[in-house]
From TrEMBL:
Pfam families: Lipoprotein_15. This is Lipoprotein with Yx(FWY)xxD motif. InterPro entries: Lipoprotein_repeat, UCP029720. Keywords: Signal. It comes from Mesorhizobium ventifaucium. Residues 1-20 form the signal peptide.
Amino acid sequence: MKSITVGLAVLLLGTATSYAAEAWKEADVGGTKIYTDANGMTLYTYDKDEMGKSNCYDKCAANWPPLKAEADAKPEGEWTIVDRTDGTKMWAYEGKPLYTFIKDKKAGDVTGDGVGGVWHIAKAD
């Protein structure tokens, strides 16, 4: 029975880790390493957010959809989970909540960079 329990624990741990890793990935755009969502869409940070707190809701979130995290997602290294006031969760990198941009139409688009002087590509260090 003990080996079944250990095996199940390893399986569950592997599943949680692999899920988190599938929420984002690195890409190279114009010689710059950036983070994207699982579909290759560029991720952005918002200057009006606070560390570990999103300030993008309503119309803002309609234009800048948060990088959603599943309810059971677990932080992984520099990647953390932010609880939103609407009850959902989203991913953050180094404490900065991450978003996609509705005007980016295909993987590799970076049309949101610099919008309003407050939106920036999430660069991979």
